[in-house]
Structures
1.
Amino acid sequence: MLKQTKLNIEDTNMALFGSNVEKEIKKHAAQGEPAWKTAGQKEGLEVWRIEKFQVKPVAKENYGKFFDGDSYIVLHSYKVQDALKHDVHFWLGTYTTLDEAGTAAYKTVELDDFLSGLPVQYREVQGFESEKFLSYFPSFIVQKGGIETGFKHVQAADYRKRLLHIKGTTKNVVVREVPAHASSLNKGDVFILDLGTKLIQFVGPKAGIAEKTKGTQLARALDDERGSKVEIHVIGLEDKDDHAKTFWDFLGGKAEIAEHDGDDATAHQTGGTKKMFKIHEEKGKVDFSEVKYAKASLDSGDVFLVDTIGSIFVWVGKSSSAEEKKQGLIRAQSYLNQQPHRPKTLPIVRVMEGGENEEFLASF
């Protein structure tokens, strides 16, 4: 059964370190995390899915396939002048539970500690993934379902019918499952109606070459992975053959469709000025105060929230206290929630002193 509760991003500060969630996670982590034993020891990509407070590795052949009812951790390790560097992302599906989101966030911090605080941490929200995150996967597909669905191989005739939306550029093309209704379509993208033994690819008249190419590749890949022959058909907006009729009938009838995807107005469009805040603990009290936006304001003894407009960074000083470190992500989420005109899916990135990425340094 698919999960129906939509995760409220405004409540992810509860999910990150909610007392009940944290207590349960710590109990499961008491004996150490087996998943981290070999994590980040060599260059490459590693992916884990959260399953009932447990960190379970995803098979390499399923890298890039995500379920909207789950939470994941993705570690990218690479070398710079023979030294291993790391980027660690926790990805939250739209319908993941607070327990799963909290476990993913907590375990990401745990992985960070295992790797001696070297990784740059990223929070990724379904539908608003960073370019860096998407660049890891030649094919990035978000399907409906969760742990109960799993990565199970099924015969084509038994496959769950669905509509896939293919959108992007030559740099990144993303595939997402969308409601199987004509209202999900637009003229600028490519869609595949997956009927198990038949795939009907709808090519919008304004679709780009990258989307058309990915649509063809995906259709072939779906054909290859199934146990019986799959028919593949391509239709356009004006086609009226039997395949077009099947397509429109399944989507509730032919109707006027939008010129472009409703999400084309980038969710990260924001206004305002850059701001910077210090998170400082003294005598058990944590103070959150604005400071001058300048690199010189950073102090090794504290944690800082740096709002660059396009992203919110949590900069962790080498000598900051454990409570300051813990409060960093919580304060960042709370700060974002208090910005009425800012998208709640804005990237939140945690960087350690000495491990800053180019985007952070360039903001000054």
2.
Amino acid sequence: MLTKGTPGISSAPQRTTSKRASRLVQKGLLFVALGLFAGAAAVAVKPPVNSNEPVIFQARTTLDLPHSFDSLSNSFSEPFISETRIRRGDTLAALLQRLNIRAEGLQQFLTHHEDARSIYKLYPGRAIQAALDDNNQLQWLRYHHTPSATEDGRPVSRWLEVRPDGQGSYTATEEFIAAAPHVQMAEATITSSLFGATDKAGIPDGIALQIPEVLGSKVDFLRDIRKGDRLRVVYETYNQDGQQVGSGRLLAVEFENQGKVHEAFWFTNDSGKSGYYDFAGQSLQGAFLRSALKFTRISSTFGSRRHPIHGSWRNHNGVDYAAPTGTPIHATADGVVEYIGAQRGYGNTIILKHHSNYSTLYAHQSRFAKGLRKGDRVEQGQLIGYVGSTGWSTGPHLHYEFRIAGKPVDPLAVDLPVARKLEPAQKALFTAAAAQYKTQLSLLQSYQDGSLVAVNQE
């Protein structure tokens, strides 16, 4: 046992001090690591005065880190960009305040300078962006005001850009850029309707509307679709600054309808002519659409019926499509206007002459497409008139007739003529394009079947 005043320690206290010192050394190493990260110091150990004192760490000198926090903060040179949407009733002053802009003379410049006149009209929903540096100084102001499109249908983003001129005032210029196209794929299953399925699959409305136009000669989308039918599409969208700003063209489609598969894709030959073809090389443009209206219902079919006005039994030589007055009517195939005008019980009528001995009749129209005259050439899908109730009619609808050699036949039952096949000289180019779309559509099929991983591994 140790006596008071006797130097030294027993073995038990020695082990305790050793453990404590070990823990303190570990803590010290941790402090060193943290100190280096935070710009702290080199350290040295102060020897204990006697063996009972704890080990103490003291900072002697500070070290400069290779990259200090100051240098890191100074390396961020990009401005801070904020955006706000115009609300109904907004003023220019309110918008600048929301963007935290305090640029002297800016509001006066925007409201008086002729080059900034596009900001005179604030459209609710449009965006205004501002870029500020780390000193809260304005770098630029942008007002995205008037969307438009190029000749080929690509969305164009247009904006007014205002910048400081370095002399206490500002400059304003109109800028624009066409959105970049992107290719996307999607698969949908019909549960209630075509457009319900495309909405659920996230397919844009602009693409969904093209599907009946492309496959209208193969499928009657008013009567033929069934629950469980599957749709696969490859299509274009347009993006601007990472956001989707519009949809483009339907590039390829595969529709499984009642166990039968219908396919089509967009093909441009080496002479610049484009159109939709099936994978066998048969053009769909030149074939007849099953319906002249996109959204409607059949109110009367082909055949004998009691006339709704005269009450007697008569042959009904066409199909009636009920639709609201003003619904657009489209030509079901390429042709020439053979007749346009009023025709007794038919009311306002258009007759189109097509290739061979085919013709079509569109009756009871409220009005015709502007500028359309006898002898004009029309293309499949072109607007020719609008649904009405002229002539012998009890309500707005389109009476549509399909004639062969002048004789009406049932357009819902007849085998519609198809276009010619692809020219042999275009076959190689066509085959390469078809293979690309087939691969993309098969990926969607593989994903549906749960075998997409296996396809990717191949």
3.
Amino acid sequence: MIALIVGLVVFLGAHSIGVLAPRWRDAQIVRLGAHGWKLAFSAASIVGFVLMVWGYAMARTEGVVLWISPIWVRHLTAVLVVLAFILVVAAYVPNTYFKSALGHPMTAGVGIWAFGHLLSNGSLRALILFGAFLAWSIAVFTARRRRDREAGVAYPPWRARRNAVAIVVGVVAALVFALFLHGPLIGVRPFAA
């Protein structure tokens, strides 16, 4: 469990610097240069991610179960994960309704992904992993929206065609991941009988 927690602290900590310490981040970019900062950020993110994955896999042997979800929750989780994929894609497609309405659709998508997985995974390790991502996404989303309001950020109006791109790509990516990649990469087949 220690590796999982350290990985979460490193990964989510690196992804929180822009919100928690923007001046320090800007100073490091000046000191290291944009490429140097990106390299340091990427290295910290990779180390944190590897520790998270390794720690989560190691915690599988502990098997502390806090709750068992009814079978239908698996379907609710699938719907939430598809929505999360759409929001993550929308972060990269300009002028979508999701970007206009939410401002930070990727952060919202991470929160929805984490919430969905919390619903259907009642182990202690799942609570730590997905609970940390959910808490992080709520805190960061709230801070970013507050910062946007204070700065008077206005997002451009959305276009229906851009929404269609985000939705189609998000749904296809979610289906491909669930049906072909989740099992080999995560060790769980979401729709296995």
4.
Amino acid sequence: MKKLTKGLLVAVEGIDGAGKTTQVQRLSDHFKRQGFDVAAFKEPTDGQFGQQIRMLAKFGRHTVTPSEEFELFLKDRIEDCNANIVPALETKKLVLMDRYYFSNVAYQGALGLDKNSILTRNEEVAPIPDLVIFLDVAARLGLSRIKNFRKEDHNHFEQEDYLNKVRKMFRQMDFPYFQRVDGSRDEDTVFTNLRNVLQDVISPFILPGSYQEDLFDSGLRSYSSFKFKN
């Protein structure tokens, strides 16, 4: 077992169809095989508020205002933090998130809510991640994947004009722990890039004696201290 000196929180973000769920599952499987204690969670959750959000996606968002929609996401995240995320971090697990509060900044920000207020409200109740990986794909590609690979109809969050705005919101984020990865490439190439980025972040926190070899090449990462680009 490779033990960490602290719990690490990693969020994988992006528009619908970016490949988040596939890559989080692959990362979870990989790092478990490497001997790490991994917990993977998905938002919205299957809890009471998460189910309400899924109903909005399926049947329409016209029944709530953008502010009311955001409050549902926030309540769902509070439940997730209390029941899953914080306990996993306290036991020094590697926690992988399939979406986190940066999706609120992008999706509700694209509806006109203040992105800094969304960020502040979330960071009052949810741990700040050690790493956010943004899988960047064009809206048209994301929607094509949903149609061709998932064989699903587009829900009310999955509209091209809207997702273009959401993507723009994601691309404006410039946190010191925010890493953009091209999600348009083939699944294996994207996974290799994510794995290497994540390994760079994990390596300094591996308990001495529990890590025996350098598994991947490290590379310098360029981060900015600014939260949003102009």
